[in-house]
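Bumping with the actual sequence this time:
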Amino acid sequence: MALWKCAVCGAEMEARCKPGKCKNCGAEKDQLVKDAPAGTKKKES
């Protein structure tokens, strides 16, 4: 599973493939960016 974040409204969605549009605001799929799944982001020192 990947975490997708909407560049328009900031909503996050979990899906295997890139969603067709944001389920929150309806933004097109080119506005969705792949984000690291929860718990895997590097901590800044």
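The tokens above came from a reply further down the thread. DSSP finds no helices and three strands in the chain.
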